[in-house]
Amino acid sequence: MMDHDTIPVLAHDLVKRFGDFVAVDHINLEARTGEVVGFLGPNGSGKSTTIRMLCGLLRPSAGQALVAGFDVAREPEQVRRRIGYMSQKFSLYNDLQVIENIRFFAGMYDVPASVLHERTEWVLDMAGLAGRESTITGTLPGGWKQRLALGCAVLHRPSILFLDEPTSGVDPISRRRFWELIHAMAAEGVTVLVTTHYMDEAEYCNRLVLIFQGRIVASGSPTELKQQAMAGELLLIECDQLGPALDLLQQVPEARHVALFGKALHVVVPDAQTGIPRLRTALSAHGIAVSRIEPIRASLEDVFVSLTAQLSGQRT
């Protein structure tokens, strides 16, 4: 039985098919009050499709999802009244003034007139646009426009917020400020579900859900995922002849996973103390000079590459 009284977002065996293509394949997930849950996966993995189903914008092909206690398939209008939604393609009206956009979305969300002034002031302050109310929205820099879009999406103070690639194309400083706003909302009890392809942003989430080919392949905190996925110790290797070194190490039993990261290799071994001399010996025996080899901490990018590589191998 789905406990919708205590869990804001709950999905069980959620499926979405487009003809013969299965975009979302029996996904189970939950998001609790005040939690920031990140969806991480390659393009086409099913992240945005999952979000759109949870928002009541797409009808599931099978399974069930409850958002704010309402069934997304049977009660999509009730769901949409209780959530905030912002996507990469979320479009403010560029030819309207800042204040006109705020008033338009306030009307769309039925914001009571008694709180409209206070909510408007909050959006302007949050977006850094106080004193710029008459500015044409289309002339705003990307970071300001993004914060204005977020403010408009939460004018009705929803308890659940869905963000679909919200910071795509925005500079790093603006992205950092955006995430500070997200955490401030979460601290007030807002449940946030966000998709992102930025690995540094994924670190800001309380919990991550990794999606690959429509399926959830791992979930947990960033720290838990790093521990689960690596199953060993991670080495950084800098050497000449990176291509031949990559091919060679993929044949070495000691190397559980090998990937190219910039101008170096990342290699997972059962134990760094024994793995380092063995890999150095294997490379040297083939005339490959090693300039640096040492243990490093795994990043979420390492986790992502390792998991998708393993699964791609299983499904080919």
Summarize the structure.
With 316 residues, the protein is an alpha/beta fold. It has eleven helices and 14 strands.
Which term fits the overall shape? elongated
Could you state the order of secondary-structure elements as H and E? EEEHEEHEHHHEHEHEEHEHEEHEH
Cα-based radius of gyration, to the nearest Å = 23 Å
Overall pLDDT confidence:
89
Characterize the main sheet.
6 strands, mixed
**Could you name the CATH class of the largest domain?**
Alpha Beta
Would you kindly provide a written description of the structure presented here, covering whatever features stand out?
The chain is α/β, with parallel strands linked by helices and 316 residues long. It folds into two domains: 9-219, Rossmann fold; 226-315, 2-Layer Sandwich (Alpha-Beta Plaits), CATH 3.30.70. It has eleven helices and 14 strands. The strands form three sheets. The chain has a six-stranded mixed sheet, with helices on both faces. The protein has a four-stranded antiparallel sheet with strand order 2-1-4-5. A four-stranded antiparallel sheet has the order 12-13-11-14, sandwiched between helices. Strand 4 (62-67) and strand 5 form a beta hairpin. The longest helix is centred in the middle third of the chain and has 16 residues, at 172-187. The model has no long low-confidence stretch (mean pLDDT 89).
